[in-house]
Amino acid sequence: MKKVLLASTILAMSATVAAAEMTLSGSGVMGLDYNDGAAVGSDKTTTLMETYITFTGAGETDGGLSFGMKATMAQFSTDAPTYVDDGTTLFISGAFGTLTYGDVSEADEVATLSDIGLTGIGTDNVAEALSGDSNGGVAHNVNYTYATGALSFSASANIGDTTAVAKNDSMAVGVKYTFGDYYVGLGYNATDIANAIGARDGNTTSLFAGGSFGAVAVKAMYSDFSADAGAAADLSAWGLTADYKMDALTLSLAYSDNDLVGNTKASYGLGAAYDLGGGASVKGGVGSVNGTTRAQVGVSMSF
Q1: H/E element, 6
Q2: Coil, strand, or helix at residue 233?
Q3: What is the pLDDT of residues 8-56, one digit of tens each?
Q4: What residue ranges do the domains of the chain occupy?
Q5: What CATH number matches the domain at 23-302, 2.40.160.10, 3.50.50.60, 2.60.40.10, 3.30.230.10?
Q6: 171 and 155 in contact (C-beta within 8 Å)?
Q7: Under 8 Å between Cβ of 147 and 295
Q8: What is the tens place of the pLDDT at every residue in 257-270?
């Protein structure tokens, strides 16, 4: 009976793929994670495994409008009982730009930083603590993007709360200009936490810049947070990453810091990745995140 059901499911999926122009892709990582700040009694070194299955659909109307969807299912450990939704979006696009619903990016995150390690030890999170929905911010569910030539503009918001208890408002805008191998960007996020004073109750302005200089690629960002009256203190966050590519080998360096309460030390890390070909890479990294030694090593693969 199970074989019959499986065969029927595969046939149904195949028909759907043909009709809706669906594609299926996947990725995963396996390795080891070291955390010197693990809870007392817990192992500092643990296995690391994540798998992702992504469904992508695309279509076009008779009038030339493009539309589509993307849904990712993920498992985040070796003993995960089932796959969970790791982000689903639906969009429509035309000469007017692209309108996307679902698990969208906040528009002020014009150009995020890369992390160190396999899944990441967290150096980028320190620099990005005041942008997007990080550190108590509000996740957005609608994004509009328009691009013309080297200039792109985005606006996003959290529209419609499902409960009357915590009606948090948040909107963001961002603009990015690319010239050759370089870019600059500006992002703005305004968040109002309705029934509690939070670390992100206020406005954040972020600056971004980056580019490639031969074999070296550099990214930098700086965020300045202005708290609403009676909310948390004004804060700032910043970070820098650099990658040096030499044939199949890429070396990475990261440095970041912020003024949040509890963050007492700058974070930094050094990473390496070697492309094995065929979609597989060996990756590793070691660093310090707010004074805690972190390290990861393993294999990343895509299908």
Answers
A1: helix 2-20
A2: coil
A3: 444 444 444 434 589 999 999 999 999 999 999 999 999 999 999 999 9
A4: 23-302
A5: 2.40.160.10
A6: yes
A7: no
A8: 999 988 999 999 99
